[in-house]
Structure formats: structure tokens, C-alpha cells
Amino acid sequence: MSQAIVIEELRKSFGKTVALAGVNLAVPAGIVYGLLGPNGAGKTTVVRILATLLRADAGRAFVDSHDVARQGDSVRRVIGLTGQYAALDEALTGRENLVLIGRLLGLRAPDAKRRAAELIEQVGLTESADRSVRTYSGGMRRRVDLAASLVGRPRVLFLDEPTTGLDPASRLALWELIGATVRDGATVLLTSQYLEEVDRLASRIAVLDHGRVLAEGTPGELKARAGGQVVAVRVVAERVGQAMSALAPMGHVRRELDEVTVPAHGETGLTEAMRRLADAGIVVDEIALRRPTLDEVFLNLTNGGGKQDAAAA
Amino acid sequence: MRQLLEIYLIAERNVRKVIRTPQFLVVEIFVQPVIFVLLFAYVFGGAIHVANGSYIDFLLPGILVQTATFSGLNTGLAVAEDLRNGLMDRFWSLPMSRFSVIIGRIVADTLLSALAVVVMIGVGTVIGFRFHAGLVEALGAVGIAILAGATFGVVGALLAVIFRTPEGIQGVGFALIFPIVFASSVFVPVSTMPSWLQAIASHTPITATVDAVRALSLGLPLQQLPLTAVAWLLAMIVLVGGAAAVIYGRMGAAIRG
Fold this sequence. Notes:
The complex is a heterodimer of chains A (about 325) and B (about 260).
Chain A: E1 3-14, E2 17-28, E3 32-36, H1 43-50, E4 58-63, E5 66-67, H2 72-78, E6 79-82, H3 94-104, H4 109-122, H5 138-150, E7 156-160, H6 168-183, E8 187-192, H7 195-201, E9 204-209, E10 212-217, H8 219-225, E11 230-234, H9 240-247, E12 254-256, E13 259-263, H10 268-279, E14 286-290, H11 294-302, H12 307-312
Parallel strand pairs in A: 3-8, 3-9, 6-7, 7-8
Antiparallel strand pairs in A: 1-2, 1-4, 4-5, 9-10, 11-13, 11-14, 12-13
Helix pairs in contact in A: 3-4, 3-5, 4-5, 5-6
Chain B: H1 2-20, H2 22-44, H3 55-85, H4 87-92, H5 98-126, H6 135-163, H7 166-182, H8 195-201, H9 205-218, H10 225-250
Helix pairs in contact in B: 1-5, 2-3, 2-5, 3-5, 3-6, 3-7, 3-9, 5-6, 6-7, 6-9, 6-10, 9-10
């Protein structure tokens, strides 16, 4: 399979802060690739280097086989970028923003208008396309922003936390657009701190923390790597502490809200957990054997470094 | 050729943006310059006596140049705003020259400040300003005022790439521009200042520019004034623009976070 993005030993520091401490990645063409990590993990730095906005201190990076350090113009011809903030001109309408990008990309005026109209329909903004962006909601801005990054039909699309701060409905709409983009043959590099988002969209994931790739693989592989199945138990809130101590002999017990999980160690784990809870006299609301969620994988890998973010997500 | 198109597209966007934002258009092009003309003509006009002629004849050439310096700060503020809101990232990630973004901005602001020049001359004429020399001199005066607008646009761009935030530019810009504008021949003859200040005030680009615009407007002896002014302004465009280009060309470190 050909590679849309190749990164070798990429390093970048800002003053004394090490943003990237030697990152290696290979992103196959034609998929959504998730770059997952807490705030400050280095995700945005990776994207900015790949989009030629930032120079790496060391290492190499290629986008669609173009060296980002030496062939910036060729890279810029094949990429689209949507950052964390909608990069639009507030005073212009959504349509004018898209036409301007089209013209700057070298389309003739009629072609730029046609492409803008296409995208406006695709992102579902037909009714508000001719109002100034100033009047748009956050969700509408993001949709126009995504459309702006699609004007040049990029082969590689960078989406840097595209759904941060969006309401659930807008997030869902954006996810559908991202899916459609990949079906058209583009490669998408998606950064996110939302596990649900990458789990849902990405076919491969790299987990980044403190400027290093901690793990890489398909969501299934990462879940499997976090260990086998877990026993997940739900009890009433005031019994959580007791349940945790009852299960402690089985291994490392984790708690999230009223759910307690412990490694299952094979088929007998479930019955063992039930017996231990019964012996402790704890009434169980729900008990099940399941694979760990990406949240648990993430917490395992980042060693708690991203606990707050992950819990919020 | 390609870059000219880019500059045109960016300039067009910026002009359209200002027209769409009435508070910008009205405040920057009309209210602020007109208020300066009227305020100084009527509030200070009675107290300030100038040799040969009325104060409005003396004042208006000064106000034209003063407005150009403020318009330059607006250029800086707008560039900093684009840097902050991520629009610059988008332009930089396109296969276009990043310099077109700034040059287009300066072209747009120069056009708008040319409009302000016309408005101020109109208002000045209503309250008694007249060009006292020929058409060529009048056009020369207007031309130098507009060139000053472009020059201070370049200065604004340098401030923007150094300070990067609208707040930084506002603070430093005004701290820098205010003294240099007031300690010049914009509002009063330099000869009325204490001698130590005269030594400074008579050697600034602002004074050189105002003196040239004023001599051309009033039909005073030109000596080397227009040449000196144009030399100052072009030298500033080259030096300040060069410094801005070097800094801006290397820019790309994360602007925010």
C-alpha cells in the first residue's frame, strides 16, 4: 500500500519545551488516520510541520512523496488544512470565502464559483451561504472551514481537532463529511483528544504523548494490546469502594463513575468476580465481560498523563 | 504575473471587508480624519498663529500625513488579527506566495487612505482650505500623502510581524507614533518648539513629508522638499519593508499555543 504521509525521527522544540521527541509515522493512503493524545502531546506540531507552517529541528517528513522541508510548494498543492479555529474571513460570506480560496488556488473565477457552490451544497449551507460568516454558529463555521480546506480537492487533508467545542449534532454532521471525503479517495490525518471520535472514524491510530508515539495500530489492535478482556461491574455509588477492595486480589482495579473494571484473566474471571462480590455481600446492578475501551487503552498508555482530558471526553 | 493576481485577490478581499464593516469604513475613512480636521481647525486654530496664510491651509497638509500614519497602524492591527484567528495559517498552507497576503493588505489600505485623503480635502475645502499653487503641485501633494499612506502601511506590517498581537501593536504603535507625529510640523511650525526638540522634529520623515505636502499645497518655495520627502518614504519602504519581509519570511512558529 502506498504511503500518504511518512514521518521519520521528527523533532521539534520551542525554547526548552520539547514538542516532538523523535516521531515516526507511516500513514497509508486513502484512510482516516487518527492522531490521538492529550493537550500538549504534540499533535498540532506534527500537523503544522506537515502543512509546511513550521520547520522541524531534525528528522524528515513527506506528504504524498514530497519533502515538506524542501518541496513546500508541491506539498501545499496537495493538502488541505482545517485547524482548531475556523480560519475564515468574518466579514465575507461563506461563499466569498470559498471563492477566494479557489481563486488563490489558481481556479478561474467561474470555476471557483462552481466549486464553491458544490461545496456549499455538500456541507449543507445553501441557505446561509450568502450571509457574512460573522452571523454563523460555531457548527456552521466549522463546516465552511472544512469546505475551504476541500476546495482544491486535496489528496491529503489535515484536520486538527476539527470538532473541539462543537455540539453533538454538529459533530455528527462533520463526521459524515469527513467520511465522505475519504470515500472520494483522500487521506485524512485527524487529530483529536476524543477517543470516541478516532475510534469511530479512523482505521489506524497513533497515540501521542509528550512528543512520542506510544502505540500505533488499528483500534482493535490497540484495544487488544491493553490486555485481554476486563470484567466490568456496576454497583450503587456508595458500594463502589467496597467493590473495588473485593476485586483487588484479581489485579489492577480501575474506576470510572459507578463502573469498576478489573482484568478478567481468561474465562474464569467473570465467575471469580461474581463470587468475590457475593462473598462481600455487594449487590451488583450489572456485570459483564468486555474488551477494554479506547479510553482505558489511552489511560494505560499515557500512564494517567491525559486522565483529565480522557475523563472529560 | 501570478503574484499580481494574488495581491489583487487579497486586496480586493480587504477592501470588501472594510466596505462590509460600516464601523471601519465610517470611523477610519470619515469620522476620524474629519474630526481631526475640524478639531484642530476650530479648537486650536484660534491659538496657533502661522506665518503667511490661514491655519486651515497650514493644518490640512499635516492632517493628511497624520492620517496616513494612523492608517498604517490599522494595517498592522489587521495583519495581527489574521495571524491570531488562523486565517494566515490557511493562506500559508495554500500554494501561493505568503508575501502576497501582506502586500495585498497594504495595497488595500493605501487605496482606503487615498479615499480618506479625498474626503479630508473635501471637508477642508468647505471650511476654507485652498490649494494655492497649480494643478501639478496639488496632485504632487496628494501623491506624496498617498505614498506616505503606503509607507506607514509597511511600518504597520513590520510592527505586526514583530508584536504579532493587536494589543501589542496598539500599545507600542501608539507609544511610537504619537510622539513622532506630534513632535513634527503636522500641527504647528517646528520653529515654535524649544531648540532641543526642533533638532529632533526637523529631522523626522513625518516633518519631511508634511513640509513637502505643505509647500506643494500652499505654493511655497519647493527647494528640495518634495525630493527629500519621496527619498525618505522610499527609503523607509525599502528598509522597513526589507526587515518585515525577513522576519515574516521566517515566521511559522505557532502563533497561538
